[in-house]
């Protein structure tokens, strides 16, 4: 099993997951060229992908999908409402456009989408199950709902949003309406909230957490890690023993091979 976060942040997102011999790309929010290069650098041929699953239609999650599919003719799975919101939908070959239902079986891997709170048409996160292993992608969360908490429970690996530092956002250059959007139930999760949900979630003995979708204007990888670590420690979690935190970046790959 392996995980390669090719890019994570407000400028673009793409995550490669391999479980049970299946190779899956979560989102294609960077250029097709960057995806091809990023996968090549970790030894993954682009034509070995079994498919792409899309969380929602915002450009930082789909901007590379048209070119990627035209070049490689891979299946792309998204919610029906998400397809309606993808501007390049009609340019993607019909045989590559797949509707995502309540679950998707890719060989021995089960992919289960779950609803998230964000200002998109039908945004989802994903749980990936293989044998006794559970990996979760949960970003672009305005708020942690009971559905999200259930999805995160007992995850061996979680790619979890830690978008902004509350003070940096409040004191930063964004206009007030944008600050309110980010802080709203349809916006993004703060560092503090990311730490809080981890303290409340049922966990396996060891959980790897990748702090993802960081704002480049309202956060820093070190600040996200330190804030989440502090919240976890205050909640009685032994960081480094029970939870291992990992940073992610918009312009470099972060990997884990198990």
Characterization of this structure:
- The protein has 258 residues and is α/β, with parallel strands linked by helices.
- It has one domain (2-257): Metallo-beta-lactamase, Chain A (4-Layer Sandwich).
- The chain has helices spanning 32-41, 59-62, 65-72, 80-85, 146-152, 166-171, 176-183, 191-200, 221-234, and strands at 2-7, 14-19, 22-26, 51-53, 76-78, 97-99, 104-106, 109-115, 124-130, 133-138, 157-161, 207-212, 243-247, 254-257.
- It has a 7-stranded mixed sheet. Strands 7-8-9-10-11-12-13 form a 7-stranded mixed sheet.
- Helix 8 (191-200) runs parallel beside helix 9.
- The longest helix is centred in the last third of the chain and has 14 residues, at 221-234.
- It is globular, with a radius of gyration of 17 Å.
Quick structural gist:
This protein has 258 residues and is an alpha/beta fold. Helices cover 28% and strands 27% of the residues.
Look at the structure and give the mean pLDDT: 97
| CATH first level | Alpha Beta
Characterize the main sheet.
Answer: 7 strands, mixed
Structural class of the secondary elements?
alpha/beta
CATH architectural group: 4-Layer Sandwich
Helix content: 25-40%
Elements, N to C (H/E): EEEHEHHEHEEEEEHEHHHEHEE
Query: CATH homologous superfamily name?
Result: Ribonuclease Z/Hydroxyacylglutathione hydrolase-like
What's the CATH topology label? Metallo-beta-lactamase, Chain A
Oligomeric organization of the protein chains: single chain
Largest sheet, order of strands side by side? 6-5-4-3-2-1-14
What is the tally of beta strands? 14
């Amino acid at each position: 099993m392996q995980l390669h976060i090719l890019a994570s942040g407000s400028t673009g997102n793409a995550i490669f997951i391999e479980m049970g011999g299946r190779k899956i790309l979560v989102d294609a929010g960077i250029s097709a060229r960057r995806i091809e290069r990023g996968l090549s650098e970790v030894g993954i041929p682009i034509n070995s992908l079994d498919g792409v699953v899309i969380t929602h239609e915002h450009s930082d999650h789909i901007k590379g999908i048209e070119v990627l599919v035209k070049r490689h003719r891979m299946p792309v799975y998204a919610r029906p409402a998400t397809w309606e919101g993808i501007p390049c939908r009609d340019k993607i070959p019909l045989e590559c456009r797949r509707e995502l239902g309540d679950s998707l079986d890719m060989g021995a891997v089960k992919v289960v989408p779950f609803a998230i709170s964000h200002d998109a048409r039908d945004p989802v996160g994903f749980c990936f199950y293989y044998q006794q292993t559970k990996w979760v992608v949960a970003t672009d969360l305005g708020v942690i709902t009971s559905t999200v908490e259930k999805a995160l429970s007992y995850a061996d690996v979680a790619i979890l949003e830690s978008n902004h530092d509350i003070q940096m956002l409040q004191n930063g250059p964004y206009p007030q309406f944008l600050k309110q959007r980010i802080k709203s139930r349809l916006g993004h999760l703060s560092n503090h909230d990311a730490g809080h949900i981890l303290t409340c979630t049922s966990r396996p003995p060891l959980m790897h957490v990748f702090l993802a979708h960081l704002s480049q204007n309202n956060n820093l990888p070190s600040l996200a890690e330190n804030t989440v670590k502090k919240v976890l420690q205050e909640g009685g979690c032994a960081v480094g023993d029970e939870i291992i935190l990992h940073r992610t970046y918009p312009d470099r790959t972060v990997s884990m091979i198990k």
